[in-house]
Amino acid sequence: MVLWKGAAVALEVVVASLAAGVAIVVLDPVAGLDLSFGHVGEAIAAVAVLGIFFGWTALAAGAAFPSRALAIGVPAGVAAAGYLVGGLHSFAAWLDPFRFVSPFWLVGTGPLRNGADAVGVVVVAAAAVGILFIGAWRIERRDLQTP
């Protein structure tokens, strides 16, 4: 069941990301941003992978622990920490070694302007798949009879 819900989450994220990509491409000439079509595609793929990563993290946390608060808090905490580390590592030297664990840093900085980092996108996607399978494995071992 967790894998089916994971597929539904992925489909929702992909549809929303494609809608955002179409809006960016359509409105780019109006705004005069002069964005590269390839960079827009890479950025949309990066956003979709990030959305799937955090969605599957929430799904896995909900499958592993019988707590709605943890299902919301774990991915929110991972997102906040990853965003801060990915964005602040250049200002705080002590954060620099941790930038490799930030999914935001891995997919690339400024993907609309510079394009996404393909290797980083694959790493985040692989991590998302691993997290989803851990959630599926964990729910099999959870005692669903005990309140």
Total domains, how many? 1
List SSEs in N-to-C order: HHHHHH
Low-confidence stretches: none
- Strand percentage, roughly? under 5%
Percent of residues in helices comes to over 70%
Per DSSP E runs of 2 or more residues, the count of β-strands stands at: 0
**Which word captures the global form?**
globular
Q: Kindly name the structural category.
A: mainly alpha
Total helical segments: 6
Please give the radius of gyration in angstroms. 17 Å
Largest sheet: none
Mean pLDDT: 89
Q: State the distance separating the first and last CA atoms.
A: 20 Å
Task: Name a few traits of the molecule.
147 residues; mainly alpha; 76% helix
Kindly describe this structure:
With 147 residues, the protein is mainly α. It has one domain (2-140). The chain is 76% helix and 0% strand. The protein contains 6 helices and no strands. The chain has helices at 2-31, 37-64, 68-88, 103-107, 111-114, 118-140. α1 runs antiparallel to α2, α2 runs antiparallel to α3 (68-88) and α2 (37-64) packs parallel to α6. The two termini are 20 Å apart. The model has no long low-confidence stretch (mean pLDDT 89).
Q: What's a concise summary of this model?
A:
With 147 residues, the protein is mostly helical. Helix content is 76%, strand content 0%.
Ordered list of secondary-structure elements with their pairings:
Elements: H1 2-31, H2 37-64, H3 68-88, H4 103-107, H5 111-114, H6 118-140
